[in-house]
Write a structure and sequence with these properties.
With 185 residues, this protein is an alpha/beta fold. A 4-stranded mixed sheet has the order 1-2-3-4, with helices on one face. The protein starts with a helix and ends with a helix. Helix 5 runs antiparallel to helix 6 and helix 6 packs antiparallel against helix 7.
Amino acid sequence: MKRDSIFYRLFQQSPSLLFDLLENPPDNATEYRFDSVAVKEPKFEIDGVFLPPDNDSSGVIYFCEVQFQKDERLYERVFGESFLYFYRQRERFADWQIVVIYPTRSLEQSNAHPYRALLNCPQVHRIYLNELGEIQQLPLGVALMVLTTVEETQAPEKARYLLARTQEQIADTEASRAIIEMIAT
């Protein structure tokens, strides 16, 4: 027997029944109304999805969001997109991780309270590029990311340093050229 319709009718007749199940119902529980809604799928664009190798049955998918402007609905979008993708691809992945990259903490969503459990879980990583350290002490790839946060007055000096470091450390001409182009950009 399909039970959804029973609960639908129960909640429709008495929406406060849901709150009878909770230890800490809201004070205005009797004022809530019940509705059954269909959520239409908006177009989602995730900045980056890092897929494990096809032969890795215990693979973890990594979702990456790079956020260089204030977005007061960022976490709604990131979690919605990531969870929908994971839901649709569940048979392919054993677990998920989310990485949000900010230039500074000041661009983080102001009201993150509804997402506190997710934001504090070990599956969600918030990276603040300006807190990673000095470009000279960072691995080259990370230093390139940090270069995007450097003030305009300091950027030429830091870029020259990274150009010299690239020429010293990267023997592969094609890889070196690609890095140099990124630095120039």
